[in-house]
Amino acid sequence: MFFPIVWPYMKGYDPKKIEKKQQAMWDRKKLHQASDFSKKKKYYCLVEFPYPSGEGLHVGHIRSYTAIDILARKHRMEGFNVLFPMGWDAFGLPAENYAIKTKIHPAITTKKNIATYKKQMKSLGLSFDWSREINTTDPKYYKWTQWIFLQLLKHNLAYKARIPINWCPKDKIGLANEEVVDGKCERCGTAVEKKDKEQWMLAITKYADRLDKDLDSVDYLEKIKLQQKNWIGRSEGAEIDFLIKDFSESIKVFTTRPETIFGVTYLVLSPEHPWVTIVLDNRHTGVLNNRDEVKKYVDKAVKKTEIDRSSEGSEKTGVEIKGIKAINPATKEEIPVWVADYVLSGYGTGAVMAVSAHDKRDFVFATKYKLPVTVVIEPEFVDVGDDAPRPELPFVERENILCIVKHWKDEKYLRLIWKKYPWKNFVVGGLENSEDPMQAAIREIQEETGYSDVSFVKQIGGMIFNSYFAAHKKQNRRAHFRAFYFELQSDKRSEIDLEEQALFDVVWQTKDEINKTIQSDVFSGRYYWNLLFTNHNSPYTEAGILINSGKFTNQNSEKARKSITDFVGGKWATKYKLRDWVFSRQRYWGEPIPVIHCEKCGIVSVLEKDLPVKLPNVKNYEPSDTGESPLALISSWVNTKCPTCKGNAKRETDVMPNWAGSSWYFLRYSDPRNSKVFAGKNALKKWIPVDLYNGGMEHTTLHLLYSRFWNKFLFDQKLVPKSEPYKKRTSHGVILAEGGEKMSKSKGNVINPDDVVSKYGADTLRIYEMFIGPYDQPVSWSTDGIIGPYRFLEKVWRIAHTVSDKKKDVQNEKMEVLLNKTIKKVSQDIDTMSFNTAVSSLMIFANEAEKNGNVSHAHFAPFIKLLSPFAPHLADEIWTLLKNKNSIQEEAWPIADPKKLILESVIIAIQVNGKTRATIHTQTNTKEAEVKQAAYTLPEIQKWLLGKEIKKEVYVPNRIFNIVLS
Ligand code: ANZ
Ligand code: ZN
């Protein structure tokens, strides 16, 4: 191995010394401050600001912060005016719970934690613009959070409602649906209960359609878009009224499958449905025959969480409301009405028309309670290719049967192998004259196979349709199939008609043979053959052909959807799964909701000049026993004057949820010190939208959606310039502990980044976290893995001391090509967030440079620029070492020379039996024939070939030509 000469004055790589020094230099030069006035193109990159917990920064934070820091640094070197801000999402439960325990004010704990976080971030060399630091708990900040709330209130997007909320009995707090995981409180794991409470709500559902549709206009990772779409849950369908017999009232259902209405055999209401309350209240005296039963069921059901009620695996339960009947508007038949908790009150109309033949849940329910099942759709198979129906021709209907016949003793089945065609079928035939299907089946078996001692076992499945073009008759046919299963009782058999004999052979085949040779779904019987063995017992949920559907019978179910809706007087409607946002908490450590309750005037907004409504000091942070906020206990704060009538009034004591401050913080960074408005128009116009926003997948359905909603609202008020706040959204994979478990204090497997920084330096930690695996994938921490990046940086440090600023490289051309390739690869990889492969390209370059022993300044300087976003401290230190006065961050990002991406000349080894006997210098990509010709003329080669026979030639382009002798 070759070791470079170490210059006598070279000191060892000492990150401790380098990093502090460089950080001070950056601060002094204000290298990371964004300019509001620069003419350069702007680039706003954002990472989610953290909640400053007592635990300090997690190595997981560092992964995404470093990644976006790399993008920020590269953009600065590319000439962009970069905004890369940081702040604190500092309202939240942990500080409050800590305050309850210790009586230390959350503001004090928060301040301390923020100091720790900031120190840690600085020690990592993250190039945040600290001049724009914000803190959601700062009254100067939350003044504007309160102000935005008042705008929402003014536009009727904030309202109070008494609703059943998810209630955590331990934290004494109402939880948003998103905060309930598997029926338990996300924070403490206690089983969540239902409780009716007055809550402030934000009407995010009014924006559901735009939040859904506008996803098409942004560049988010596909999985993020999909999660948001599913959460918003847009569904198109119909609202249809079902008349209640003997009452001039009706129940409205929402259905996505109105075409199945002829198959509706009962209605199901959610336990909270007004009609259930009406009959339970006995307002229709004498109607309800089983009041106690219904009441007991409803009381139990409303206590369950939505997740328990609606999850697929959970047992479906319900009771019939005995005494009322509904009328199916399509068939005019009377159908029973049930209450079941799998129907949710907050979705659609809270009432479902049950179609047990075509919906999974209804099917399970109907089977359990022995409710009728009416099939109204049958599968349709449409042939393709030569047999595809011709669009210009009408259809001729046919009635067909298919018979699967089992041998009298063996596990074998009858099949017909056609002689002139490649067909292999079961017995298939058409109904003649007035035959019923069974007669036709028995006749066909006898005619085609001669067997007559058949015993009918069962019908297989229902009917199916097969549409195809019958070439011999030049007609489109829609064959209507039924299938029967028979077992032969004996080998009794009569002669087969000669005509039939000429057509096919009758053979017995095993299951395996049939599985291998079955060709088509219908005529060859694959559909029924599979059904026979799958114990088919599930509803058909797809589209097909309508049957039992009055005048719609025979139509394609999807095409008939709208006309059936019209037929029953239904209305086309769009529904969303998204619910309004529960916006209040009965806690202390949050933004006070800035309204006043006046007996005379009702709910009155705090005047703008009186904002912010500051949190008062309290002695006790515990929520009251009734679940009211601890603020309710401070009468001096609660009692106030009404801004309108000046009479006595009381302040709202609920505070905002911890999602409030983060719903608009990205706007504030554009103008963080403004005291007149939440952000100035010009600043917003300059910086918004955010060009790149990176954050955790766990925030996709909460913060990301909430902040899009607030931004859209502000856009509608003409207060922000763009209706979508984030151009691009990416997400990082989590970092797990060694062995793949989640890092947690209780498991004692948490890696403290401070330890890593003090042992190896920030640059090593940064490179390690970028190198650890593909950015969007979860990865496990490996303490052994850190040494690799450290050695790499040591190597770069050594090479830096051997750089020659006069000479060319020893292998000048080769290094030049490698450098240009590295520039191209690292630049692309940063843009596509393939940080791990960017690091490996840098490592390859360093290895080659050290092998060469003496790398030129012209090649090394651009390499250090490429390295600088990853290892900024070392890069700047080396930059000084290379006799530069400025910071490397003020340099321009290198650009690859496309002409220097491949070597111009190569040296090809000419081998005989695998041993190199000569070399040829030639141009890159010289043709094989030319190399060969040159090789055979070389005397050093010729002498090995004398009297020998050439068995084989192996050519590896640009590298080796090997002559193999016998
Ligand atoms: C009849 C029907 C027949 C239905 C069929 C489905 C299949 P998505 O697609 O998620 O929007 N539904 C309506 N409101 C409901 C509620 N509050 N709780 C539980 N289920 C409800 O779901 C819409 C379908 O879910 C609706 O269409 C309705 O059942 C049911 F073959 O109506 B369907
Ligand atoms: Zn008043």
What is the gist of this entry?
The protein is α/β, with parallel strands linked by helices.
Characterise this structure.
The radius of gyration is 38 Å and the shape is flat. The strands form 11 sheets. Strands 11, 12, 13, 14, 15, 16 and 28 form a 7-stranded mixed beta sheet that branches. Strands 18, 19, 22, 23, 24 and 25 form a 6-stranded mixed beta sheet that branches. The longest helix is centred in the C-terminal third of the chain and has 20 residues, at 812-831. 39% of the residues are buried. β14 and β15 form a beta hairpin. With 966 residues, the protein is an alpha/beta fold. α26 (857-867) packs antiparallel against α27 (872-881). The chain contains 29 helices and 41 strands. It binds ligand ANZ and zinc ion. Zinc ion (ZN) binds at residues 598, 600-601, 604, 642, 644-645, 647, 649.
Low-pLDDT residue spans: 1-8
Q: Tell me about the biggest sheet? A: 7 strands, mixed
Ligand roster: ligand ANZ, zinc ion
Helix-strand category: alpha/beta
* Beta-strand content bin: 15-25%
Overall pLDDT confidence:
92
| Rg estimate, integer Å | 38 Å
Count of β-strands: 41
Proportion of helical residues? 25-40%
N/C terminus separation: 36 Å
- Shape by Cα distribution: flat
- Number of helical stretches of at least 4 residues: 29
